[in-house]
Amino acid sequence: MRELRLRPLPLALALTAVLGLAFQGSRGLWEPDEGRNVNIALGMLSTADWLVPRLNGQPYLDKPPLHYWSVAAGIELLGRNEWGARVPQALFFLGTAALIGALAGRMWGRAEAGLAALVYATTLTPFVAANVLTPDTPLAACTVLLYYAYWRAEETGTGAGAPGRLARWGWWLAAGAAAGLGLLTKGPAILVFLPPLLVHLLLRRRLGAVLREPGVWTAAAVALLLGTAWYGPVLSTLPGASAYLFDNQVVGRLVSAHYERHPGWKGMLEAYLPVLTVGTLPWSPWWCWLALRFSRKPQRKPAEAGLADPGHALVLLWLALPLPVFLFASSRLPLYLLPLFAPFSLATGRVLARAVAGSRRDGTRWRAAVAAWCLLLLGLKGSAAWLGHHRDDRGRALWLRSQVPPEEIVAVDVQLNGLLLYGYPSLLWVTSSPDPYPLFSPLPTLDQAARRLATDNGRSVIVVPRHKVGWTRERLEDAGLSCGEGRPSERLALLLCEPAVQGLPAGGGA
């Protein structure tokens, strides 16, 4: 039992904090997600409009606002930099690990609490997600809070008198708040995680009794109230919002392929196979070894495993019911599976605790392996800041500043939304595609932008992918602009254009 005493929940959470906060602001913003989300958060801070997310000043309804609120809060508290933008992700990561550990402790015991939290913190996918600005990490936190509150409500029981009934009602209230916050994070995606709770109650023959309690209906009312606090005003004030949200967050995720998020069987493999294999490191090889071991010695399988244990049943349902929805929906992105790493961590922590408890071997090698893996994770996180990336907006900002001062940038068929964090006052994002991504506020076309620029006084700074620079320049000149080329980057070209009547652009050959 010596190994278990060395891994309590506080120690696991301290390690989680180190993994989440180390190098959290060292890397520049990477497009498309980070640049877009910071752009929207900065817009909220500058306009004080916390209701309608706006990308470059235009309504953007692909996601509800809770994630943008957290990014804006971090920037407001810690400054206009990457640390301020990403620290909330680390806090959500830490909170999720803490809730997983607390849930494991309530289900099974102290050993499982520390190990389950440790597994979540050190698994590759949650670790990477905590350093990337997407709403998936906040959604994972809301999901785990929902399950933890549900477990506490059921654990409290109904026979403990008035204090017990009050506590049970309070936990149902917390479950409703978690579901409502999930609605404010990624909309109806949180609903995928409700059926496991209903089936868990059904298997335990508790569904009818729970549905007769006021607590569960209070929880539903709280969740609905929180969700409609944003959806209601947006639907009533923005024409076309209801049709767009239904298509984007329901039809577009389940059956439609026009959002181009890895549709089809090939898309399922592209999006999820790496997450389910590499993304489960370092624990997936251990699971493979364990399965092979038990297949050779079936008598060693735990007799109480499976649905007989309420904790086992909940973890199994949490994994088994949402996973097919994600696999067969037409909209797939790798981090959609992130909330499923909570039950994966619970199951791994449970089995790992049993394996360690039943072993008399010294745990030094196991501890050394975990320590080495954590150092590797920190090395990967730190090296990402120094190696750079072709979609790093900080590097793009340095490239632009070396040739032109901060001014409005016109981005043609390239996302540069994160430039607002680096001192650029505004961005005009335009498209030349006849079938662009279906945003709520359609992007201006290149021809529309060219006509506007041709009537403006002064120079226009235009960024375009290098392979499109010749064609784009011809379109701009046909609209009445005279353009010269700046020094290109590895993948992007720079056009400096002025209305032709004013002559050649200044610095056109820079």
Characteristic terms for this protein:
two-stranded antiparallel sheet; disordered N terminus; 5-stranded mixed sheet; 22 helices; single chain; alpha/beta; Translation Initiation Factor IF3; 510 residues
Polypeptide structure, described:
With 510 residues, this protein is an alpha/beta fold. The protein folds into two domains: 2-386, no CATH class; 393-502, Translation Initiation Factor IF3, CATH 3.30.110. Helices cover 60% and strands 6% of the residues. The chain contains 22 helices and seven strands. It has helices at residues 2-5, 9-21, 33-47, 66-78, 82-107, 110-122, 124-129, 136-156, 161-186, 195-203, 207-211, 214-237, 241-254, 264-277, 283-296, 310-320, 322-328, 341-357, 364-387, 393-401, 446-455, 469-478; strands at 54-55, 58-59, 409-412, 427-430, 460-465, 481-485, 492-499. A five-stranded mixed sheet has the order 4-3-5-7-6. It has a two-stranded antiparallel ribbon with strand order 1-2. Helix 2 (9-21) packs parallel to helix 6 (110-122), helix 5 runs antiparallel to helix 6 and helix 10 runs antiparallel to helix 16. The longest helix is centred in the N-terminal third of the chain and has 26 residues, at 82-107. 45% of the residues are buried. The model is unreliable at 1-6, 300-304 and 502-510 (pLDDT under 50).
